[in-house]
Amino acid sequence: MDPKGTEIPESIRRLLEQLAKGGTAAPAEDGRYFARQLRLPEGGAFGAACFVRAGGPWPEAEHPLLESIAAVYAYALRAEWDRRDATLQHWVWNKMMDSTNACIYVTDPETDEILFMNRAMKQAYGLEDPEGKLCWQLLQLGQQGRCAFCPVQMLTQDGSAPSYVWEEQNPITGRTYENYDSLMRWTDGRMVHFQHSTDVTEARRLYRAAMIDELTGALSRRAGKEALSHLLEKAGEPLCVCMLDINGLKSVNDLHGHAAGDSLLKGVASAVCRLLHGEEFFMRLSGDEFVVVLPGVRQAEAAARMQAMLEEFARERPAFFPEGDAFCYGVIEVREQIPMQDVLARADERMYQQKRSLHIRRAEALLNQPRSGEPSAPFSYDANLLYDALVASTDDYVYVCDMKTGVFRYTPAMVAEFGLPGEVIPNAAAVWGAKVHPHDKRVFLESNQEIIDGRTDVHCVEYRAQNVRGEWLWLRCRGHLQRDKAGDPTLFAGFITNLGKKNKLDPLTGLFNKFELENDMLQLLSGPHPKPLTFMMLGLDGFKHINSLYDRVFGDEVIRLVAHRLRSLLPPNSTVYRLDGDEFAILMRGSSRTAADQLFYLIRASFSEQQVFDGKKFYCTLSGGCVFAPDDGRSYVELARCASYALEYAKRRGKNRLECYRHEIVAGRRRTLELTELLRESVEHDFENFEMYYQPVFNASRQVIGAEALARWSCAKYGPVSPVEFIPLLEQSGLILPVGRWIFREVLSTCVSWEQDAPDFAISINLSYLQLQDENFCSFMLDTIKELGANPRHIVLELTESYLAANMDRVAQLLTEIRRSGIRIAMDDFGTGYSSLGVLKSAPIDIAKIDRAFVKGIQSSTFDSAFLRLVVELCSVLGIDTCLEGVETEDEFDAVLPMSLSYIQGFLLGRPLPAEEFRRRFLLHS
Question: For residue 73, what pLDDT is reported?
């Protein structure tokens, strides 16, 4: 069939022609084109059909349905070509249509008269002779004319639509059908309406059951996550995710039954439904947890709506539900693409903060309630469960003794550590006494005898015992004797504390310390076959800011909170340790880069938002360095050193990241250390290998009016080293102070020598922030100027915008004093800071040096051009000169020339040169 207005590929067209003529060509599928032939039982082609799908390739699941429809089309087409055997045609048609379970009927598109209906449809609708009657009278209820949703009109008016697929819930049968409607050529040559209907009632019911939580009407966990993931893939539009958890559902179930609990769940779900609008939805994440998703809603509005819903539910709460908040909630706003699990984890963290506050308020309320004096409710518990809970909640060894029989019970950990014959020991005094150090046996036996003799009910003694490794461990044994009503000893129980183990714990966090880390790693690495392990060293980013903002006591609390969080994130095969200061270590049994990445992913997500403790807000992230044994090392010292290098590298690369050790990191670290020592040698040898270069500064007429002094340094081992590398090393090592003084004196000497060649020539000198922090530097500058006879007005000191913006309050007075001497101040790299224009208003400067980043896009970027014009005009109003850096082409020069800049600098006009070469090229011939 060639649908009107649809262009069929030539290959498909040839196939159809061959099939229609009785050829034996095989069926063909070509993307959205589906072609099939029909043969009679006696052989020979009966007809052929082709279907076109506008929305892409036909799904494979629809091929059986297409086969059935193809038979109808093939028959009709063949009938068009050969009308000689109408009886055979009707017989074949009826046989084919009645053999399918689908509902099929044909109508006149002008009159809606039913021309044919197959057996399956007659049975489904309870009809005997529908032919000749109107379809909307038999198949619908209460219709006075053609159904409003009937696709016939669309098919007859829009010839480009070969078929129409839609879904209907029929009022006659109460079933849901998926309908395929199209036009076809009937046996008498006219066009008729053909409908093929499949009963999808059960499929839709199962789909809805899988998509919708039956109790609450919310989306199921799976369906809700799929919907949320789809929204998160769209970036830009704000999206709020709200997680809520019902308080006290278990208590309601226990006290009032699960029917009451279900009623509570349905009540909360109903309140959530009333909250939702448009495309907003919610899902049931678990038994008492829901997630509400609000596309296009900001966080403040989402929180307000959740709070309003909470208050509404409080007014309508069921009688069995206790007073107080019905649920806790956490709201986060998402504006970028974030993994769904991270979004849910953040919302859960916010919700947990509220839930924790609620528990604290309830506990405080209970503490403040007056005691009634009435006897308390009866309380009982399983002794075995109590023992198991105590064992699981402490690192100490728990022991219990039946004083009637003398049988002791010890914990599994104590049995393993000391090689005891079992947990239950009848002759414990002899078995355990054999483990006690000979020098401590007397005090051990005397303390136990006092309990046996009944002279005391309290037991506390320290002694040494030998473990399975032959080590003598100091133990502290504490216990208490319980007596029955007759006063006879009945139960003796207590704790044995491993003092050796306690000495390996960090007192602030309760984590194992660095000595225990070393011991654990030595055990794993020792022997001929060392066990593979992953060692991750973590450091807090910006922890000094937290101490500075609050105090060290609060800083200790942050360390403790971080330790607790890290311990909660660990997989079963891992241990976390506290190192020095703000550093931690994680030891994972097994060597796996994937496992390390997954763990750090959880850590970074857990510390990705601002936190609150004791009413104080703080934000800190962690950087990590990771090594793997035995690949990266076979000793504790080697692995710890490599992990430290990797951690340092992670902090240098931006922090809040994990870097795994590579040889290149060590090579870079070694180069850094060697360069620092070589710089120190140069300074100690009277600044050997340092040299000053000068880059010319021009006015708009291309006349040299000054220069910028630039330090250069080289060494025998590495050759010339970029200032980008050696200047930070000078600052980190403190060498910038002596080098800075040498630079200042060297440049001033050059400036004085050039005054006779260029009387008004000015030289700019770059200053480090550390030089301004040196309280003697200002007096040094003024003394040097006086000593060398230099003109202060020929000196410009350059400081970066980022430093000035961050320290304006502290350095403004100092810069004002320097300017009073006649020295001018320039702000370097202007335009790269977040508050550039604001800095112009308050900074005591004479020149704004605009960063070269704005030159590169000057010819194509409207913003860069507008920014330059704005800055020049603003500086003109404020009496500040402007200098544009980085002009490298004639086109760039021509573009900025009309902007009335005070000075221009760049490789187009001149590169940095040594002093004598600069003088010959720019001063003697100017």
Answer: 58
Helix, strand, coil percentages (3-state) for the chain, rounded to 5, are: 45, 25, 30
Q: Tokens 């439904």 belong to which residue?
A: 273
Which two three-digit tokens encode residue 608?
A: 């990705």
Is 211 in contact with 273 (CB distance < 8 Å)? Answer: no
Q: Residue 495 is inside which H or E element, if any?
A: strand 489-498
Strand pairing partners for 283? 219, 291
Q: Which of 841, 861, 864, 860 shows the shortest CA–CA distance to 852?
A: 864
Distance CA 411, CA 496 (A): 10
Q: What is the pLDDT of residues 60-101, one digit of tens each?
A: 766 766 666 666 655 555 544 454 455 555 666 777 788 788
- Taking alpha carbons only, the member of 564, 459, 551 closest to residue 506 is 564
Distance CA 545, CA 593 (A): 32
Q: What is the pLDDT of residues 327-363, one digit of tens each?
A: 889 998 887 777 888 888 888 888 887 887 777 777 6
pTM score over 0.70: no
CB < 8 Å & 24+ apart, contacts of 832-839:
832/801, 832/802, 833/801, 833/802, 833/805, 834/805, 835/805, 836/801, 836/805, 836/871, 837/871, 837/874, 838/805, 839/801, 839/804, 839/805, 839/808
The CA distance from 379 to 287, in Å, is: 29
660 with 593: CB under 8 angstroms?
yes
Backbone conformation region of residue 318, classed left if phi is above 0, alpha if psi is from -120 to 50, else beta: beta
Rg (CA), the chain: 43
Residue 434: other Cβ atoms inside 10 A: 10
- What distance in Å separates the CA atoms of residue 366 and residue 374, rounded to the nearest whole number? 16
Tokens representing 272? 């959530």
- On whether the CB atoms of residues 426 and 401 are closer than 8 A, the answer is no
Q: Which residues contact 155 (CB under 8 A, 6 or more apart)?
A: 109, 161, 164, 181, 182, 183, 193
Q: What does the buried/exposed string (b/e) look like for 869-885 if buried means 16 or more CB atoms within 10 Å of the residue's CB?
A: eebbeebeeeebbbbbb
Residues in CB range of 904: below 8 A, 6 or more apart: 697, 698, 699, 700, 883, 884, 887, 893, 896
Q: Round to whole Å and give the CA distance between 916 and 96.
A: 103
